[in-house]
Amino acid sequence: MRAKWSALSALGLLVLPLAFPAPAAEVDVVGLYHEPDKVTKNDEVIVYLEVDDSSNISVVYLVFCIIDPPVCSQAFRMTYQGDNTYSYKIGKFKEGQDVKYNITIETKDGNRTLNAENHFAVVPAGTDGGNGNQNNTTDGTDGTGGKDDPSRMYMVYVVAGVVVIVAVAASALVIVRRRRKGA
Questions:
Q1: Residues 143 and 168 occupy one common structural domain
Q2: Which domain holds residue 181?
Q3: C-alpha closest to that of 130 among 118, 140, 121
Q4: Which pLDDT band holds residue 37 (cuts at 50, 70, 90)?
């Protein structure tokens, strides 16, 4: 019984910050884009992030997902290039794959904000198309630093919380079953 309450207490401590997130310092995204603009299977794709002021940024993470079959990468730390620009080379992809990517900015005060996202499709060489919208953002703005939808900002944390809840519940069940067999 004690293990059950310990697991529930730990779960409560993990979920509490999700309910009451600290306000993040403001960082405006000027642009999120990839090069080359039209991606083929032979291209090494590099993702770039431009912000209005990088002085309050501690680190920028990039996550990309292949849409079909659904596979996501780990979070990669983007490299600061100077002039408020970050970049990361995500590599080559197979023809026909749709790839979506987003960035998370961690400020010096420790807050994280999921900001812009973008996507591209890997097209055969010599064809047109393959990219997301032409202004290279999908945050509902024209790429000049608009704010992201606040309801999406903590989605990563909500998903992580659900995973933790399932893991703790499964562990608690295993412990309880083992104790019953031994009793």
A1: no
A2: 1-21+154-183
A3: 121
A4: very high
